[in-house]
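Page 37, continued from 36.
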């Protein structure tokens, strides 16, 4: 046996091991919970068949994770409704034996012939010939890296040349690009996280580099079309050459006002933006196009002429971005909050020394401009506060704290990653730089419906559900006030939605480093920016602030961008510049 043969056998064994791990997880997470509802399955099948060439004698359709057969049944129904008269070869793969039985019964009852295989598609595909499948239609298991485990994630990454965080969507897309025929199509229902997050770069890169051409893209947002905890998206991509028209991109998110006048799925099918209704709620359905960015790290966004022109105007008048001038840090991560955090230390642990109990800012303490005057939550913070680098205290010098922590030693010692990282067993996993807590800082919550950027001067520690920017990083603190003005403005909110777009349920947004660092700043040297800085100083200083004051600030932020020296023309205001006001 040659070394190459031995390597192949070892690889097969590794892949088999990885799929066994995945099977154990997906059996638990998928069983009867996240199967595709009929209306959504029909829509996915309809859009997938619209991209297929139907003048062939036969079509091979595969669902790599068929569950109870909903997508295969939808494919059969759509094929019939389109008048396709050729042979339809339906094949499904499924890990759960109970689901296989259910799929066979459903399809038999509907008079649909299909082959349902009990087994792992990611293993079977290795023996399948390239270019032999016409349609892969699938809703892969929603399993993220932390559920897969490091070993399974590593093996999947090695098998499919993936980097960074791995989930099961990535290998499914990678396999599809190999198996599809020259006119083949992929109809994929997956989490919409791949559109905007750093961890979704694997899917974006695979789609852009695989030879698949995205034809239609649907960000279904918070429509809650099925019970999975993630927000769904649909990709229809094919091996056919581009038509010359940009791919259709549609987004649907719940609207707080305006009654929908068309059903959601009808709105998704149209070429115009509209207000839609579904399950008693109203949704704003935006229709635009998809223009692939030049790199895979950039989030994918919906493009339309008005938004594109607006963004170009912002770009021309942007001096720097937040990420250019500031280090955006996440708050502390204890990985044992019940031990380190509390709001009743005097009762629960009265002997813990007061010097080690520091006020803690959480997302509940932050409003636009200012943090709460009273911070009830405190953190036990066993570090030298005068040190710029992490320097843990010796518990022998703090007997009350030592006695308290010893009562939780078993739990804290169980955090093996802390010990293996060279830390003391009683340390916080992510303590950040202790000396910086005393400095003024901008703080904002990880998740909020509207921007809530505030200036904190209390010296409090920031919790892990928030982010912070230390003013010690700036040579001129005026820049911090300019950042607050932009971040809390309507312009800043629109920029986030246009460029970052990581929306959650009920209009909530993720304000994490990769997005906040993209927010723009106008030149600080103009009269308009100096006015903004003064306004932000006043708002952070306290006192009552009314709606008129915020309207004025919105207007002044827009004026600061138009007044900033553009990189391009200095002619009269463009239509996009006029919309800034």
């Amino acid at each position: 046996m040659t070394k190459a043969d031995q390597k192949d056998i070892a690889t097969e064994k590794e892949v088999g091991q990885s799929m066994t791990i995945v099977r154990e997880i997906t059996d638990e997470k998928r069983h009867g919970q996240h199967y595709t509802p009929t209306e959504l399955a029909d829509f996915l099948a309809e859009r997938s068949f619209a991209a297929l060439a139907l003048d062939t004698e036969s079509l091979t359709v595969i669902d790599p994770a068929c569950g109870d057969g909903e997508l295969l049944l939808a494919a059969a129904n759509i094929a019939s409704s389109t008048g396709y008269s050729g042979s339809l070869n339906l094949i499904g793969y499924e890990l759960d034996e109970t689901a296989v039985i259910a799929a066979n019964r459903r399809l038999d009852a509907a008079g649909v012939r299909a082959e349902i295989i009990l087994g792992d598609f990611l293993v079977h595909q290795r023996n399948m010939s390239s270019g032999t499948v016409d349609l892969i239609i699938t809703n892969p298991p929603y399993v993220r890296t932390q559920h897969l485990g490091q070993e399974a994630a590593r093996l999947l990454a090695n098998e499919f040349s993936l980097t960074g965080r791995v989930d099961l969507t990535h290998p499914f897309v990678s396999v599809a690009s190999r198996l599809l025929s020259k006119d083949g199509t992929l109809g994929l229902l997956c989490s919409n996280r791949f559109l905007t997050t750093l961890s979704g770069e694997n899917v974006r890169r695979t789609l852009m580099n695989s030879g698949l051409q995205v034809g239609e893209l649907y960000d279904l947002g918070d429509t809650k079309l099925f019970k999975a905890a993630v927000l769904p998206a649909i990709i229809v991509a094919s091996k056919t050459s581009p038509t010359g028209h940009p791919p259709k991109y549609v987004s649907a998110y719940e609207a707080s006002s305006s009654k929908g006048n068309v059903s959601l799925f009808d709105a998704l099918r149209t070429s115009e933006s509209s207000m839609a209704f579904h399950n008693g709620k109203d949704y704003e359905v935006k229709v635009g196009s998809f223009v692939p960015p030049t790199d895979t790290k950039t989030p994918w966004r919906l493009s339309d002429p008005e938004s594109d022109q607006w963004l170009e105007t912002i770009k021309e008048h942007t001096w720097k971005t937040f990420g250019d001038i500031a280090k955006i840090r996440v708050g502390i991560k204890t990985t044992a909050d019940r031990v380190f955090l509390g709001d009743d230390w005097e009762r629960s642990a009265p002997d813990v020394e007061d010097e080690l109990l520091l006020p803690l800012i959480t997302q509940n303490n932050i409003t636009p401009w200012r943090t709460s005057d009273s911070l009830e939550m405190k953190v036990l913070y066993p570090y030298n506060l005068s040190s710029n680098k992490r320097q843990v205290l010796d518990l022998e010098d703090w007997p009350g704290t030592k006695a308290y922590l010893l009562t939780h030693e078993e739990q804290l010692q169980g955090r093996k990653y802390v010990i293996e990282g060279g830390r003391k067993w009683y340390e916080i996993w992510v303590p950040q730089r202790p000396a910086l807590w005393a400095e003024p800082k901008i703080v904002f919550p990880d998740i909020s419906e509207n921007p809530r950027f505030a200036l904190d001067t209390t010296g409090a520690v920031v919790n892990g559900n928030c982010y912070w920017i230390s003013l010690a990083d700036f040579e001129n603190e005026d820049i911090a006030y300019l950042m607050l003005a932009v971040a809390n403005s309507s312009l800043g909110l629109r920029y986030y939605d246009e460029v970052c777009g990581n929306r959650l349920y009920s209009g909530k947004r993720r304000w994490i480093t990769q997005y906040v660092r993209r927010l723009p700043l106008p030149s600080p040297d103009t009269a308009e920016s100096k006015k903004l800085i003064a306004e932000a100083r006043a708002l952070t200083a306290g006192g009552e602030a009314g709606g008129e004051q915020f309207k004025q600030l919105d207007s002044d932020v827009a004026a600061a961008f138009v007044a900033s020296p553009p990189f391009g023309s200095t002619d009269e205001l463009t239509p996009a510049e006029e919309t800034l006001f």
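The chain has 23 helices and 25 strands. Flag for discussion at group meeting. The first strand starts at residue 58 and ends at 63.
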